[in-house]
Write a structure and sequence with these properties.
With 637 residues, this protein is of the alpha+beta class. Among the domains are: 61 residues, no CATH class; 194 residues, no CATH class; 109 residues, no CATH class. 53% of the residues lie in helices and 19% in strands. The protein has 18 helices and 20 strands. The strands form 5 sheets. A 7-stranded antiparallel sheet has the order 17-16-20-6-15-19-18. The protein has a 4-stranded antiparallel sheet with strand order 7-14-12-9, with no helix packed on it. It has a 4-stranded antiparallel sheet with strand order 11-10-8-13. The longest helix has 31 residues. The two termini are 72 Å apart.
Length: 637
């Protein structure tokens, strides 16, 4: 089992990795100088120790003489030394990091699960608007304060395990302020468990803050307060999952993982192995090296995975914000790409051994890979697909509505199975009752008039008969209206009452009171079909499959249809048309179940995919501009 050796330079604060022989030689020198070892030091140990000291001295001299290149997007401003403040936290950190923290986390987890299950995780609505301008501005204001709490978690954990925290600093990343603390002394003073605890402390703190904000989101009232609490939940949890806790990013999760597996320099070695493999391919075998064995390929694969993950996340964020904010999304996307990929080139370059490959061969290899990439993009086909969420057509096909106007007289039927004719809801209408009483009296009056006119004359008798027929017709119409005050199940099925049907609620004719899902027959589902895909739908007959959990149900083109009329999303400006899907599954089986449809439009070259994506982003940019301008006009008025 290999061990890692580190040397701490108290003068500069640097911690450097040294080979085993150098570490042993330095230890022998230190023991000899302190009198703990009086034996003669072997020449090889002495040379190794002196070389290590010479290396540290050269690093120290270089730090004084050579200033690092200025990088305007990565600026670190030291603030104060945290060490003198740690004794005040010693008692609290020793007590808190243990059973109290475990009890607190367990309690918050139980409360969070209870609240989430009770309201069907309504917090998901906050995640849907994560890239709105209001959300991003709020995050920009609260993120530095959340980062202070995050760093305080590192300080508490370091204090609990006896590690001195060095300097607190303010890092300006792309001119955005983020606080940080230096816990690097843990590399030489803490054991593995202590280092893992310090690394994970920030992640635990983020989730702790997120769960507290989750509870607050359920307790406070008002859109502003709930919006801030919801955004704290989103960014405390999402940031930790995608970045901070992810071992593919060189952040807290990575440092905890490499300490657990005993591979402290994994990121550096992975970058080197992957870079050597890339140079081997680009130089056509004249430079670089191929990984050896399973371990070498695993390390190189990890290096490739880190690069792919960063590119994927960057592309996802970039493609989402490009059309937003009247062109500002394009500026933010370009700025982020520069900060992540181009700005590090301003830093001091890592010395690399001179390549022995001729420039001609190197450029030949690069040109070959570029040509191969172009051929792949132009010729290799990929499935042209569209994935849409589906839902049962509750708005029209399965809706149960009232036929008359009235007030809710009693509770609606509870959700569950119902037979045809079972009562679902009863309404009351005082005006209808008053008219019924009046018409009853008028009919009695007409009957009495007929009796009294039989001995008077034919004309008077005919008028009385006509009045009775008129009153009887009005009573029949009123009886139909009164019948509409009672809502019954049309066929055997599963009924779910609509929300907000409290006693006394006023309902107009046609209002929805619930949803009835038959026990047999095909289902009717609908989904928002993007308008820009209509041409593809009309020119290429699509086939599809609907995913229901782990089950996939194929659908043919005859089971698909587009309705007339486009609907515009008020938030994004994107226009869509209702896609109707007839599925050979009873509707009752789909109640409460998520469904998705994947439409296949054949296979197209990668180039067609890129062109279609670019056109979509351009259309989304124009739609977003229209929405932003309309919003500004409404706010101005």
């Amino acid at each position: 089992r290999s061990l890692a050796f580190f040397l701490s330079d108290l003068s500069s604060g640097k911690i450097v990795s040294v080979p085993r022989d150098a570490a042993l030689g330095l230890q022998r020198l230190q023991d000899r100088m302190t009198g703990q070892d009086t034996t003669e030091i072997p020449r090889e140990d002495l040379e190794a120790g002196v070389k290590a000291l010479a290396y540290v001295t050269s690093v120290r001299r270089a730090e004084r003489v050579r200033a690092a290149k200025f990088n305007p997007l990565f600026i670190n401003l030291p603030l104060f030394d945290v060490g003198p403040w740690q004794p005040a936290l010693q008692r609290f950190s020793t007590w808190f990091v243990g059973l109290p923290l475990a009890v607190l986390m367990l309690g918050l987890v139980l409360v969070t699960l209870t609240l989430g299950i009770r309201n069907d995780w309504a917090i998901r609505s906050e995640f849907a608007g994560i890239l709105r301008i209001e959300t991003l501005l709020t995050f920009g204001l609260i993120a530095p304060f959340l980062k202070i709490i995050h760093e305080f978690g590192h300080v508490v954990a370091a204090t609990a395990v006896g590690v001195r925290v060095r300097m607190a600093a303010l890092s300006l990343i792309a001119f955005y302020p983020l606080p940080s603390v230096d816990c690097s002394e843990a590399d030489v003073t803490a054991n593995r468990a202590g280092r893992v605890a310090i690394s994970l402390a920030g992640i635990f703190t983020d989730f702790l803050v997120g769960m507290v904000a989750f509870v607050v989101w359920h307790l406070v009232e008002g859109d502003a307060a709930r919006g801030v609490a919801g955004q704290v939940v989103v960014f405390s949890t999402l940031n930790s999952l995608l970045f901070n806790a992810n071992p593919l990013m060189k952040l807290d999760g990575y440092y905890a993982a490499v300490d657990l597996i005993g591979q402290r320099s994994l990121y550096t070695r992975a970058s080197q192995r992957f870079g050597e493999l890339a140079r081997k391919l680009v130089s056509l075998g004249a430079d670089g090296a191929v990984p050896r064995g399973l371990g070498g390929w695993s390390v190189a694969g990890y290096g490739a995975a880190t690069l792919v993950y960063r590119l994927t996340v960057s592309f996802a964020i970039l493609s989402a914000i490009l059309p937003q904010f009247l062109g500002l999304g394009l500026v933010l996307g370009a700025w982020g790409a520069y900060a992540m990929f181009l700005s590090p080139l301003l830093a001091d370059p890592v010395p690399k051994p001179a390549s022995t490959v001729s420039k001609r061969r190197l450029w030949l290899g690069r040109g070959g890979f570029l040509a191969l990439a172009l051929v792949i993009v132009a010729l290799v086909p990929l499935p042209f697909t569209l994935v849409l969420p589906l839902r049962l057509d509750d708005a029209g096909y399965y809706a149960v509505s009232v036929k008359a106007t009235g007030y809710v007289a009693g509770p609606a039927r509870r959700a569950g199975l119902a037979k045809a004719g079972d009562p679902l809801l009863t309404l009351a209408n005082p005006e209808t009752e008053r008219r019924s009483l009046i018409l009853t009296l008028e009919r009695r009056e007409a009957e009495l008039l007929i009796e009294s006119t039989q001995s008077v004359g034919l004309a008077e008798a005919q008028l009385a008969q006509e009045r009775l027929r008129s009153v009887t017709a009005q009573i029949a119409v009123l009886a139909t209206e009164q019948g509409g005050l009672s809502v019954a199940m049309g066929a055997d099925g599963y009924f779910i009452a609509a929300p907000g049907l409290a006693r006394g609620t006023y309902l107009s004719a046609g209002d929805t009171v619930g949803f009835a899902y038959p026990l047999t027959g095909p289902s009717r589902l609908i989904g928002a079909f993007p308008e820009r895909w209509v041409d593809e739908y009309q020119t290429h007959v699509p086939a599809g499959e609907v995913r229901l959990g782990r089950r996939y149900v194929p659908v043919s083109n005859e089971d698909l249809g587009l309705t007339d009329g486009a609907v515009t999303d008020p938030k994004t400006g994107l226009r869509s048309i209702n896609l109707t899907v007839r599925l050979g599954v009873p509707p009752v089986e789909l109640v409460g179940q998520d469904a998705q449809i994947r439409l296949h439009f054949g296979n197209r070259p990668i180039w067609d995919h890129l062109v279609f994506w670019a056109k979509g982003k351009l259309a989304a940019f124009r739609d977003a501009q229209i929405v932003d301008r309309e919003t500004r006009i409404e706010q101005t008025n």
